[in-house]
Amino acid sequence: MNLWQEYKRPVSVPEAVQALASAAGPALPVAGGTDLLLDLKQGRHTPVHTLVDLTFIPEMSALEARGDSLFIGAAVPVNRVALDPLTAAHAQALVEACNLIAGPQVRNTATLGGNVAHALPAADGTIALTALNAETEVASVTGTRRMPFTSLFAGPGKSVIDKTKEIIVGFYLPLSTPHSASCFKRIMRPQGVALPILNCAVWLERDGDIVGDIRIAVGPGGSTPFRANDAEGTLEGKTLTEETFNLTLDALLAQAKFRDSARRASAEYRRHIVGGLFKDVLYTAWGRT
């Protein structure tokens, strides 16, 4: 049994969205395919008539500085993101997140866009991009638009992007500034490659002994990628001390909505361990500034 009837290889973004729109049956974009193809083979995805391969589109495989932003195409494999000098210089949290996605063979194929498109609230790349204040470029037959990264998500596994008509072209991240840094870490079960029990990313700017602007993301802290705005407001403009850290953690715990997961951990356990993880990530980012 064929998993699809047509397979198209467009070489431009307009050609790709037109291929989706004009397909004779249900159509989906594919790049790494590490999740989609497995779901199709195992019957966990509804049948697809047309697959539109995005890996031949130069724009979507670009990783480069553009003005005051770092652009990462959605079809860039996560291992390339992890190894590129530009991401090392401007997005350390994303480098650390990509190094933890699955295993080496999967990282060589899986793409950053695919990690985001699944819309999971604890996806490693997604949590890092949330803390790094990314913007997303989305294309349809009517053109392209840029939108705040966190506005992509509608719920667990639910994206506002219509994959049958639209594609994620790539992500724009602000270039790093003096005395700014980021960090990503996660807690997972000890058996090799595993899904995270909890992960955390922090980006901050330092002004002497004062925490300037700061962004905190924790996954899963809600039904969509969680930005701890209340905790950020508690620490911003303050000296990083044990007292201010504890107040910030209290604000994070008051805002986060941890969930029970039979395969990962209970909400109670996540509340118990988040303080240690958050402190480790925060102080590592602080030290890097």
Question: What does this molecule look like?
Answer:
- The chain has about 290 residues and is an alpha+beta fold.
- The radius of gyration is 19 Å and the shape is globular.
- It has 11 helices and 14 strands.
- The chain has a 5-stranded antiparallel sheet.
- Strand 12 (about 195-205) and strand 13 form a beta hairpin.
Provide keyphrases for this structure.
single chain, 289 residues, alpha+beta, Uridine Diphospho-n-acetylenolpyruvylglucosamine Reductase, domain 2, Uridine Diphospho-n-acetylenolpyruvylglucosamine Reductase, domain 3, Enolase-like, domain 1, 3 domains, five-stranded antiparallel β-sheet, 14 strands
Helix and strand layout, with pairings?
Blueprint lengths: L5 E3 L4 H9 L5 E4 L5 H6 L8 E4 L9 E4 L2 E5 L4 H6 L1 H6 L1 H7 L5 H4 L4 H6 L6 H8 L3 E6 L2 E6 L4 E3 L2 E2 L7 E8 L5 E9 L7 E12 L2 E10 L6 E2 L1 H7 L6 H14 L11 H22 L1
Straight-line distance between termini: 55 Å
Helical region count? 11
Taking pLDDT < 50 over at least 5 consecutive residues as the criterion, the unreliable ranges are none
**How is the biggest beta sheet arranged?**
5 strands, antiparallel
Strand order of the largest sheet: 4-5-10-6-7
Radius of gyration using CA atoms only: 19 Å
* Total DSSP E strands: 14
Shape: globular
- Determine the CATH topology of the largest domain: Uridine Diphospho-n-acetylenolpyruvylglucosamine Reductase, domain 3
Instruction: Provide the CATH architecture of the largest domain.
Output: 2-Layer Sandwich
Query: How many domain units?
Result: 3
Strand residue percentage: 25-35%
Provide mean pLDDT, rounded. 93
Report the structural category: alpha+beta
